[in-house]
Design goal:
Layout lengths: L1 H10 L7 E9 L2 E11 L17 H14 L4 E4 L16 H9 L11 E6 L6 E3 L3 H4 L1 H8 L3 H16 L7 H11 L5 H5 L6 H16 L26 E4 L1 H7 L22 H6 L2 H23 L5
Parallel strand pairs: 3-6, 4-5, 4-6
Antiparallel strand pairs: 1-2
Helix pairs in contact: 5-6, 5-12, 6-9, 7-9
Length: about 300
Amino acid sequence: MAGNAAQEIASGYATEGAAVELGAVVVDGSVDAAAAVRIPLATMNRHGLVAGATGTGKTKTLQLLAEQLSDAGVPVLLADVKGDLSGLSAPGEGGGKVAARAAEVGDDWRPAAFPVQFLSLGTDGRGVPIRATVTGFGPLLLAKVLGLNATQESTLGLIFHWADERGLALLDIKDLRSVIQYLTSDEGKAELKGIGGASAASAGVILRALSNLEARGGDEFFGEPELAVADLLRHGKYEQTVDRESAYELLAKKIAAAPEMLEKPEVPEKSEASGFLEKAMGNPAVRSFFRSAASALGREITRGLFGNRRR
């Protein structure tokens, strides 16, 4: 009876051509090695959900997916909060339970390492730093990071527009601060008033918010070279590079550094933001910020694709 059930389940996974092998069907604790669970490679660009209780193999399933996609030359980007998937970079150890399980599911398992590139926010020497210029990050998301209200967000947008019209590259926080300081100086006050009635008070609030961001180490994200999507598609010698992005560092550090405006980029010093992430993870305000930032990013993408038309 169990065998029939296993074959019936496996029939739903039957496919021809290239496929990702996930294992075999288990019914009432019995493994049917002939009832393979396979996902067509061509469907791996769709949404998926891996669900299960603690210790049932969710992480191992993700590792299987990443390894086989890498073998097939498909780019893989993993946000790994706890570092569970970092073992992709080294061959596993056989014998014992591993060998027994491989025999049960009919898998000819051999330990293998995969080309892995560790991405990190910040430049503290761990992994490849992810950076964005202030211009590329944009005023909308930056306003969310700084916690600005609607009026201050509008002022920040006008400042970005003023810099863009004059061909000023805003690479890092220092560049943005220099622009704001000029616009609030005696020499630049007239120009500040001429860009939509932006107030000096709002500009002052933005300057203070930028200082607070720097004090928390958040300025480390901003600078050059800026991350390009093509950077995530590099191939190893024979296999696709697997990128592992630490979500801890994503949340804790937010960004990486660059130089004074129009100067040659400098090598940033080691960040002192360690420990901030663990505190941030349990803060409801942090979670709320990322939800609102995601919505803002979605709106910007929609505007970029469709313009300002209502849809």
